[in-house]
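Lecture 7 notes: from sequence to structure.

We start with a single chain of 96 residues. Read the sequence below before looking at the structure.
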Amino acid sequence: MNTQELIIIEVFCKECQIEPHLIDDLEDFGLIQTVVYENNKYLHREELVYIEKVIRLHNELHINKEGIEVVLDLLQKMDQLSAEVKHLKTRLGLYE
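Now the structure, written as tokens:
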């Protein structure tokens, strides 16, 4: 396994000034995923932006885990609808 793509959870938590149990709670609820390698828990580097968004929703806006799940689902649907509108505008432009 290429550990260059992974960040150990303790280091991430220290940098973000959060408790490691928050990561465990978010993982148990299914909002984030971790990787266990050689008895250490890691986060994927490519998912850091998403994980930081989840943590911001929890810490700064005081949204509970259920609410975070709803917010993330709505954001995903907004992105899908935005992409669909862009696609339809492009198709419509072909007929003008």
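The two ends are 52 Å apart (CA to CA). Keep this in mind for problem set 3.
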